[in-house]
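Two records follow; treat each independently.
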Amino acid sequence: MKCRALLTLAALAALTALAGCAAAGPERSEPVAEPVSRMELSYAQQFTVDYYEGDYKLITIDESGRYLVVPEGGEAPEELPEDVTVLYQPLDRIYLVATSAMDLFRSLDAVDAIRLSGTDADGWEIPEARQALESGEMLYAGKYNAPDYELILSEGCDLAVESTMIYHNPEVKEQLERLGVPVLVERSSYEGHPLGRMEWIKLYAALLDQEEEAAALYDRMLEELAPILDQEPTGKTVAFFYLTTTGTANVRKSGDYIPKMIRMAGGEYVPSGLTGEDNALSTMNMDLESFYAAARDADVLIYSSTIFGELQTVDQLLQESGLLADFKAVQTGDVWCTGKNMFQESMGLGQMILEIHQILTQPEPQGLTYLHRLT
C-alpha cells in the first residue's frame, strides 16, 4: 500500500511538472499519469479540481496557482513545480480573510474549520461568524494588509484564504509563506456568471472532503431556480444603485454579476450599455442628471446598502436627492433596498434572483430575505 502511494506521488510530481511545460510550446508532452477524475462544474470557470489515486487532489485557480491537497497521514512529493502549494489535511485552523468564503463554509456546517478571521465581530453580518468571534472560538487576526503574524503562528494556522486584495500588499503574502503558512488566493468575484460564484462552495468542500454535501446543496439551488430561468422576460426595467457623498449615482456596469442576476430574474437592467469587466469592481459613478435620464422611467429601483447602510423609507431616499421624486418607481411605490447581509452571504445569490423575480411579478411579495420595500 505504501509502495502504491509513493508511485502515485511520483506520478503527481511528473504530471504537474509536465503540465507546467506543456503550455510553453505548440507540441504538448504526453502526461505520465492522468487524474482519476475531475470535479464536475456547471458555471464556475476560475478553478478546477482533479482527483488522483490515494485521495490526492490538485486544485488549479486561474492566475492564482495550483494547490496539492494531501490527505491526512499522506506525504507530498519531494519535487514539485514552484507554483504548486501543498495543503495538508485536515485543514481546520484556517485564517479566513476573503469574506465571501465565510458563507460557503457556513453552508457546509464548517465554520469551526476557521480559527482566525480577517474581519472582527462587528464587521460580520453572518451570525455564526460573529458569535464565534464573540465566544472566542474564532479569533480576530488582523485584516488582509495587517495580519497578526504572532497570533497566526501561535494558533498553528494551516491555510490563509485571501481575496485578490492581497496583491495590493504582496509583502504580506510573502511573509505568511516564509512563516510556513500556505496562502490560497480565491477568485470567486471574477466568475462571469452569478451561479459560478456560488459554485465555489465546491472548491472549499474539496479542502474539507465534503464534496457530496456541496454538490447536493448546489444542485438543489439550481432546481429551485430552473422554473425562473425558463420563463420569458417580464419586460420590466430595474435600476440598481446607491448615491455617493459626492452627489453621484454609483451603478453597476452591464457585465457585472448584479445586472446578470436581474436579467436571470426576468428584468431588464438600466442604465443599459455600460461596458466593463466581469468582476466585483465593475461599477461606475454617474452624475445625477445622466442617471435621471437613464433610469427615471425604470419600473423598479433597488437601492444598494453595501456602503452607507440600509434605508427604510422613501423619505430617507429623497433626503439624499430630491431629484428622485420624479422617478416612476418612486411614484408607484416600487422602491426596494438590499439588506447588508446580501453582500456577505455568497450562497444567497440564488435566493436573491428568486426575490428579484418576486418583486417583478407579485404585487406584494412575502418572505423576502435580502430585499425590503421602502415605505
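The next record belongs to a different protein.
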Amino acid sequence: MVCETTKEKSPLLPDRLTQGDFFVCDIFDAAPKGDMASMAHPIFSISTKPDRRIRRYENGKNFIEITPSVKGLATVHDRDILIFCISQIMAALNTDQKVSQKVRFKAFDMLTATNRPTGGESYERLKEALERLSGTRITTNITTGDIETFDGFGLIDRFRIVRETREGRMQEIEISLSDWVFNAIQHREVLTLNRNYFRLRKPMERRLYELARKHCGQQKQWRVSLAVLQNKCGSSSTAKEFKRLVLNIIKQDEEHNHLPDYSIRFDGEKVVFRNRGTMNKQANDHISAIMLDTETFQQAKDAAPGWDVYFLEDEWRTWIMNKRLDLPKNPDKAFIGFCKKWYAKNGRA
C-alpha cells in the first residue's frame, strides 16, 4: 500500500493558492507572464548548486552573454520575482494605468502568488534571490521593442527592502527593472504562463515548460533534438546525463500528465512536445481550440519579417477574444492576414 501511494503521488508541489487569502486576491487577477527574450535564451541557471559559469550564445549577428556574480547565476526559481513584476505591470497596462520601472510590492504577496511558503526561511531565500538577480549581468544586442541594447546590465538594476519588522522579516520590496525587461513589457513581448508553472518542483521541468510555451505555443507539436534542447536549457551536464534527466521527466509525465499545457515524449530521435489544448480553457474555450499548422508559422515569418510569430499569435488570439469575434473559417489564412496587416502598420520589429 505504501508503494502504491508513493507511485500515485503527484510530482507537482501542493497548490498553496487553494488556501485563499482575501486580502491579496487582487494579485491573482494578474495572469503570470514571462518576457519572451529570456524564455528563448538560457539566462537562468537550472542547477541546484551555485552556477558561476560565463555563458555566451550566438545566433547569426545576435549574441547574448551572461556573467554571474560570486554568488552565482540567477536561477529559474529566482525568475519568479520577475514573472510577478511583469504580471503586475501587464495587468496595469491592460487597464490603461500608468506604470513605472520601479515596482513596489509586499513580500508576502509575491510569495503567495508564486505558490511559495511564507515562513521565515522563504524571506531569507527571497533576499538571496534578489542578490543573484541584481548580480547577474547581461551583455546583448538582442532587440526588445524597438531598442537594441549593447551595454551590460543586471536582470534588475537595483532592489531595496523598504521595511522590516522587529523580527527582521522583510515586509515591502522595491525593485528597479532593467531597461531591457521594461522595454519588453511596454512592447508586450510577453507570454502568459500556466499558474501550475509555480508548482513544478524541478528547475529543468520549469525550463522545459518555458521552451514549450515559447516554441510550441498553440501549435500541435514541437520536435527538438536532445543536443539542441540541452543548449536551450543551458545544461552543463554530459549528453548522457542530460538525456537521463529528460527521460526521467518524460516518464513522470507519462504517469501523471503533470506538465502544464504540454505533454513531453521521446520518439527515439527527438523530444516531442504536444499541445494538450488546455491553454485559456477557463477564459475562452473556443479561442484555445484554434490549432494552426506548422507551415503557417513559416508563412507568418514571411508576412511579418523580424517579428516573433508566437508573440503575433498571442496578439491575434487576444484580438479575436477582445472583439468577441466568431472563430475564423480558415484560422491559418486569417492568422497570415493578421500578420500582414500588423507588419503594414508597425513595420519591422
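Discussion point: Residues 21-192 form one domain. How would you locate this feature using only the C-alpha cell line?
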